[in-house]
Amino acid sequence: MKIFDYEDVQLVPNKCVVESRSECDTTVTLGGRNFKLPVVPANMQTIIDETVAEKLATEGYFYIMHRFDEEGRIPFIKKMHDKGLIASISVGVKPAEYDFVKQLATEELVPDYVTIDIAHGHSDSVINMIKHLKEYLPTSFVIAGNVGTPEAVRELENAGADATKVGIGPGKVCITKLKTGFGTGGWQLSAVRRCSKAARKPIIADGGIRTHGDIAKSIRFGATMVMIGSLFAGHEESPGQMKEENGELFKEYFGSASEYQKGEHKNVEGKKIWIKYRGKLSDTLNEMQQDLQSSISYSGGKDLEAIRKVDYVIVKNSIFNGDIF
Ligand SMILES: NC(=O)C1=CN([C@@H]2O[C@H](COP(=O)(O)OP(=O)(O)OC[C@H]3O[C@@H](n4cnc5c(N)ncnc54)[C@H](OP(=O)(O)O)[C@@H]3O)[C@@H](O)[C@H]2O)C=CC1
Ligand SMILES: Nc1nc2c(ncn2[C@@H]2O[C@H](COP(=O)(O)O)[C@@H](O)[C@H]2O)c(=O)[nH]1
Hints:
Layout: E1 9-11, E2 28-30, E3 33-35, E4 39-41, H1 50-58, H2 73-82, E5 88-91, H3 95-106, E6 113-117, H4 124-136, E7 141-147, H5 150-159, E8 163-166, H6 176-180, H7 188-198, E9 203-206, H8 213-220, E10 225-228, E11 242-245, E12 248-254, H9 259-262, E13 272-276, H10 281-299, H11 304-307, E14 312-314
This protein binds NADPH dihydro-nicotinamide-adenine-dinucleotide phosphate and ligand LQESDW3C.
């Protein structure tokens, strides 16, 4: 098995067919809707809140609201639908979540997208939740995860998932790889490649994106969409605390399985870091779009499909995926 990660690979340019990078189309379709970028901010409490979700939806970006404000989900769906925006929420797999899904069906509050968000998605608990969602909310687009193997992708797809999310442990605030010895940290790009070869439905590559060029690499190896946490942390709009140190501003970014999220030190697989303040989210989104347009131009095409066909070379081997421990 050929194993590599983002920093080990470079894509090989093809002859340019556009006169300006602005001609390159970065839009993607997921669940029958078009979005401006093949990128979704991570469904984490220090990355997205209702204000950020509304901004993203209004401006034509895909978003997934986190699941950590359980009571807030129903009012959130109502608010988004009242404003004519997509409602995209997350659920877990505990018994109360089954009742929540039934309540949505009873009240005819149908989210457009539902993401099942747990650490070890290749499990009966996720398969059962996919079936429950398909029974009660058959028109919702179900994203299930997280997984790291082709077998898991097939099994979740066969259970009814409309897309799967790939990435166990490559995240910036993830310590799963250190605490358990398992995961796709250090070979996330290869895992995306293996999973996408087995997939019949879209794959969302989740975690380990450290530069905008990694988005193009994810697409080259089969991702339809890329979920990103750390590069979206630290913005003016990012939820969470800000601090000043030696005249510089920082914002917190913590893992969903960290003690900061859980409120206790039990089964902790995440940590907190401070990200240097980055300014406005729109500036980052615009720069991502420009960089991806440039990637498309180097691929010798006019849209994301062109990236999928380019050659690549392995330039080095690494296991730390940009993280310094
Ligand atoms: N993408 C990634 O690499 C990772 C992401 N996370 C994020 O952290 C958050 C919390 O995740 P999670 O703990 O799953 O959510 P929950 O705390 O909601 O746990 C979901 C259910 O799965 C069980 N569970 C969790 N981990 C395992 C495991 N390794 N084997 C068997 N059962 C398990 C839990 O039981 P019990 O707690 O009793 O075991 C619980 O019943 C999520 O947002 C998730 O996305 C966490 C780790 C890795
Ligand atoms: N192992 C853990 N993974 C986590 C945790 N919280 C979130 N995540 C995953 O990380 C990505 C974001 O990765 P990044 O490299 O872009 O920062 C996120 O989407 C989750 O899948 C956690 O506590 N532990």
